[in-house]
Amino acid sequence: MRVANGTQVPGLAGKITNYLASKGYDVVAPVNANAQASASMVYYSSGFQYQAITLAQDLALSQASVAPYSTSVPLNLPEEDITVVVGPDLSVFATG
Fold first, then answer.
1. What CA–CA distance (Å, rounded) separates 3 from 11?
2. Closest among 67, 13, 77 to 43, alpha carbons compared
3. Nearest CA to 72 among 90, 86, 85?
4. Integer distance in angstroms from the first to the last C-alpha of the chain?
5. What is the distance between the alpha carbons of residues 92 and 73, in angstroms, rounded to a whole number?
6. For the chain, what are the domain ranges?
7. Alpha-carbon separation of residue 16 from 41, 46, 70, 71 (angstroms)
8. Do residues 29 and 79 lie in contact, with contact meaning Cβ atoms separated by under 8 Å?
9. Domain 2-94 fold
10. pTM for the full predicted model
């Protein structure tokens, strides 16, 4: 799984990566998204919907924030099984 920062809050993806790792998730190095995100989204590859929903719940995101990969994912990187694109709704992690 990968976390991509879709905000202008420096280090936010890193803090969420550390949080998820502490919860037992296998997370690769965080990256910056190619565009600003208006809200956080959890994208998943085929077969990973259940894990994506569980991850969204761990981040206090609604199920509406979970979607299969599409061309609208703001990354130019190979797909991970799950990618979290961080929006301003997760900026609470910046202070935690």
1. 11
2. 67
3. 85
4. 21
5. 23
6. 2-94
7. 13, 23, 23, 24
8. no
9. Alpha-Beta Plaits (3.30.70)
10. 0.91
